[in-house]
Amino acid sequence: MLRIFKNIAILEGVSYLVLLANMLLIKPSNIDLYKSLLYPIGMTHGMLFICYVLFTILLIKSQEWNSKTAVIILGASLLPFATFYVEKKYLRH
What we know:
Blueprint: H1 2-26, H2 33-62, H3 67-75, H4 82-89
Helix pairs in contact: 1-2, 1-4
């Protein structure tokens, strides 16, 4: 289960960066590509975000994370690049 969570953490971080790139790079250029990419990228990121949070909640007891670690791991889903940090620091044993 931890291996699946590691993969979800990486994919969630990548999808977040792709979503930000779509918003910051493609949207200002007024290309219609922005509107056609927004829904699938946003939906994918949303599903990965929900999976990340659910897996974090499920793994709190089995990995014996204290509340500080759990808050850091959950908070990492809100910041760009933070899930990569979590994967490297907390999920590699």
